[in-house]
Design the sequence.
């Protein structure tokens, strides 16, 4: 590709949006935005949930068409009728929501639609070789022939990244590529990004992990309510600048709620063991015990693959534990169905909102009320007004930015979809809530809101257990921080622990953040 | 199912609603407008088409497919398919015919003539049992719906043939001295001029509409068809819902079998062959997605009427049976084409 031959000016604008606006019905997702992408550099787009980041990226990559305004490529106005046209011009995108075919293997996903052909058909051997190279570059130990559905979320995200890399495009858009990655994986990705920019590839990066993004970016652009509110070069700004422009005030993630008596033990897990689903013989959760009191907030930190998801799923009745007991308020609920766990007040907010959290064919309201149908059913029939009340309350309490309960779920921005999943479970009025990476894909404002909400509910006696792979989130509302490593709890800390201590206990190399 | 963000395109289509309101309206009500178009065209071509008596006759034909289609809708909303309904219909007719002929109990040497309502209840029960077999195979033994119901299609048809030796039960009228008359009531009688079969369809349609729109079960069904994993994690008893839809589909098929055999006053073992396909067509024309989670009773009823009125209309204007088949096929493909436009899958 000519852009990569070295005869370019670093920093010159390769692709730009000029006065781009986009309306979905009467929702104005973008209101006349100017945005430049610089050659061989990283431009990061910051903004709250629903600010219009993904929309702008979809326009630049031909996935959706703007209502007005134009796109300029190498100084020439251009119209992309489809994403494949944009791909032909060297622009590719990693979508916020995964777009892999779960039933197909890694190799076929990476080369989907661009199969390497020989005279006799697809050259699987060559595709496999290239896949291995990509995986080696991303320092990931994934076999090209594994079906994607057998990979954990973070690995799926790696495959998604590998697919975008395999195109060899000169402009690469990454919409929250790291939301499910571990710190080490992010580190590797950044190495790859530096390598790409060194070769003249231009990168657009979107992330709600602000500090992380600051490590890599050259330019920072802040979007707010569909308009560009600030632009600066990296050398002129710091974290505080971004937060100020994104949400107005400085936000922190809160502190452990105090000033009330914690109640009795609400949830007690005794020696729970979950065998490896692939049957490899070892246990992903290995005789783990834990008890949480009413009103207490417990954070479980761990790397991807530490067994956090399996632990929570086994407790909530989703996975079968091979040994151990789950006791909810003194009552043994081991092996109970998910439905009766919810009835008894033990709920799980799953990690993967697309696969486990949302029903795409239903509206926002119906998704929100799905777990509490009983609450608005009298005798046989559901009550429309009661349901509307419940939905309205959930939308208000979790601060979901939506056109109303009747909007299709696909019309919400990623972070707001995440809030729907959390709101759905809080609407059941639980006693114990387990949240698997609740902050995945939500902005710091929303994250602070979610944590505040959880802290508030804890004050009223809710027992909260949440997992995270971001150390910063451990040091927020949690009264107790547990570090999980290879299916066991490797350390337990109070709220006054340091990031370094937590990371050391997780088996992670401490790097200079 | 892939996780492709097809949502974007779909939402974009919907987003343009306010601009092209009229086109959108035409599109939303496509089955309705198709029905109107069919009525207008055939009325223009034949003076006999647009008469009350012809409408009632056509409606009683539709009743059979309509009942099957209601059951099929429930199954399709769940993301499944029920190929066994045609055979279940046939088997139900044969069993009803068998019961009407009297059941001989050799041990005590008496012949029992169950009264008509007992026959009706037993036949419905039979439909439920066939549906339950489907449901258990699919929900618990994890046989794909297509295969499980295909197997049951053959088994049910085979049993019907075995029971009758390939012959047909005639004279289902019953005899007054045996106290089992009234079977033809379903097929021939009218209430306020409307054939009973049509009223039965109406009752089933209304009940099913309420079931879907106003009960917890309806919500469970839509959610487990849309995303079974998410529904299960929200406490929806997905397995029970699955079995229930096949049971309900079996009952609908049995009722359709009763209506058909009483319309004909005979019950043959091959009745209802390929009706399952007509039922699927009605559901699809009515705008339901075969992937589950989307569809309404009203749409399905319109779909059933489109198919019924179209094929009867072609008969009335004297088009050959071969062309009828071609037309029906074209309508089905067009409907699916429009659906895929609507749901934006590429
Ligand atoms: N297909 C659509 N139909 C209707 N509204 C939409 C659609 N896509 C996006 N929107 C709306 O446009 C706005 C911007 O959404 P967008 O997805 O660009 O946000 P975002 O900045 O990427 O947020 P997040 O950080 O949560 O991913 C939101 O208010 C969203 O509800
Ligand atoms: Mg987004």
Sequence:
């Amino acid at each position: 590709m000519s852009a990569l031959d070295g005869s370019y000016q670093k920093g010159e604008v390769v692709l730009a949006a000029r006065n781009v606006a986009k309306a979905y019905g009467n929702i104005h997702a973008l209101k006349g935005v100017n945005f430049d992408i610089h050659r061989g550099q990283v431009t990061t787009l910051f903004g709250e949930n629903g600010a219009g980041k993904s929309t702008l990226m979809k326009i630049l990559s031909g996935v959706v068409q703007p209502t007005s305004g134009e796109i300029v490529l190498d100084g020439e106005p251009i119209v992309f009728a489809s994403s494949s046209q944009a791909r032909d011009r060297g622009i590719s995108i990693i979508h916020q929501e995964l777009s892999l075919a779960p039933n197909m293997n890694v190799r076929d996903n990476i080369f989907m639609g661009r199969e390497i052909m020989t005279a006799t058909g697809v050259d699987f051997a060559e595709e496999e070789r290239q896949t291995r190279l990509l995986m080696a570059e991303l320092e990931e130990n994934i076999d090209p022939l594994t079906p994607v559905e057998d990979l954990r979320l973070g690995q799926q995200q790696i495959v998604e990244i590998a697919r975008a890399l395999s195109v060899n495009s000169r402009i690469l858009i990454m919409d929250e590529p790291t939301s499910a990655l571990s710190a080490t994986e992010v580190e590797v990705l950044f190495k790859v990004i530096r390598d790409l920019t060194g070769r003249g590839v231009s990168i657009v990066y979107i992330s709600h992990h602000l500090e992380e993004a600051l490590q890599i970016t050259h330019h920072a652009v802040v979007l707010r309510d569909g308009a560009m509110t600030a632009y600066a070069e990296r050398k002129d700004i710091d974290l505080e600048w971004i937060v100020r422009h994104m949400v107005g005030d400085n936000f922190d993630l809160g502190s452990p709620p105090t000033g009330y008596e914690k109640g009795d033990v609400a949830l007690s897990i005794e020696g729970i063991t979950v065998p490896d689903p692939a049957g490899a013989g070892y246990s992903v959760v290995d005789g783990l015990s834990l008890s949480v009191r009413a009103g207490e907030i417990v954070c479980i930190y761990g790397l991807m693959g530490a067994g956090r998801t399996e632990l929570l799923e086994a407790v909530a009745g989703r996975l079968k534990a091979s040994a151990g007991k789950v006791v909810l308020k003194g009552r043994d609920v081991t092996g109970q169905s998910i439905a009766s766990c919810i009835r008894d007040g033990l709920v799980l907010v799953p990690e993967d909102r697309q696969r486990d959290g949302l029903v795409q064919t239903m509206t926002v309201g119906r998704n929100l009320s799905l777990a509490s149908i009983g609450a608005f059913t009298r005798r046989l029939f559901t009550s429309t007004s009661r349901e509307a009340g419940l939905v309205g309350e959930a939308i208000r309490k979790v601060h979901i930015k939506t056109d109303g309960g009747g909007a299709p779920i696909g019309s919400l921005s990623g972070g707001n979809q995440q809030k729907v999943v959390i709101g759905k479970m809080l609407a059941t009025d639980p006693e114990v809530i387990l949240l698997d990476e609740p902050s995945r894909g939500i902005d710091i404002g929303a994250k602070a809101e979610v944590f505040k909400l959880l802290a508030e509910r804890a004050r009223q006696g809710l027992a909260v257990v949440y997992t995270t792979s971001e150390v910063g989130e451990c040091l927020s509302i949690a009264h107790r921080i547990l570090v999980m490593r290879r299916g066991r709890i490797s350390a337990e800390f109070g709220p006054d622990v340091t990031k370094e201590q937590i990371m050391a206990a997780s088996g992670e190399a401490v790097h200079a953040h | 199912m892939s996780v492709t963000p097809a949502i974007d395109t779909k939402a974009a289509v919907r987003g343009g609603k306010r601009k092209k309101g009229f086109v959108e309206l035409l599109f939303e009500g496509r089955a309705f407008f198709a029905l109107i178009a069919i009525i207008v065209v055939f009325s223009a071509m034949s003076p006999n088409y647009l008469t009350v008596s012809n409408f009632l006759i056509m409606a009683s034909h539709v009743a059979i497919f309509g009942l099957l289609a209601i059951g099929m809708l429930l199954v399709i909303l769940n993301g499944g398919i029920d190929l066994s309904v045609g055979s279940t219909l046939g088997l139900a007719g044969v069993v009803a015919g068998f019961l009407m002929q009297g059941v001989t109990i050799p041990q005590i040497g008496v012949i029992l003539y169950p009264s008509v309502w007992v026959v009706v209840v037993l036949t419905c029960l039979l439909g439920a049992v066939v549906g339950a077999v489907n449901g258990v195979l699919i929900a618990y033994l994890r046989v794909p719906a297509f295969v499980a119901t295909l197997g049951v299609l053959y088994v049910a048809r085979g049993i019907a043939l075995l029971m009758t030796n390939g012959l047909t039960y005639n004279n289902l009228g019953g005899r007054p001295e045996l106290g089992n008359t009234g079977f033809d009531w379903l097929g021939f009688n009218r209430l306020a001029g409307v054939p009973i079969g049509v009223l039965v369809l109406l009752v089933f349609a209304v009940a099913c509409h309420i079931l879907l729109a106003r009960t917890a079960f309806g919500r469970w069904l839509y959610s487990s068809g849309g995303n079974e994993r998410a529904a299960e994690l929200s406490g929806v008893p997905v397995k029970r819902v699955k079995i229930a839809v096949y049971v309900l589909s079996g009952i609908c098929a049995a009722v359709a079998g009763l209506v058909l055999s009483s319309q004909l006053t005979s019950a043959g073992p091959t009745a209802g062959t390929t009706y399952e396909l007509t039922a699927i067509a009605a559901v699809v024309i009515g705008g339901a997605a075969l992937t589950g989670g989307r569809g309404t009773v009203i749409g399905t009823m319109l779909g059933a009427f489109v198919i019924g009125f179209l094929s009867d209309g072609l008969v009335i204007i004297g088009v050959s049976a071969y062309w009828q088949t071609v037309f029906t096929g074209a309508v089905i493909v067009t409907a699916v084409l429009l659906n895929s436009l609507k749901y934006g899958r590429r």
About this structure: Residues 1-20 of chain B have pLDDT under 50 and may be disordered. The two ends of chain B are 13 Å apart (CA to CA).
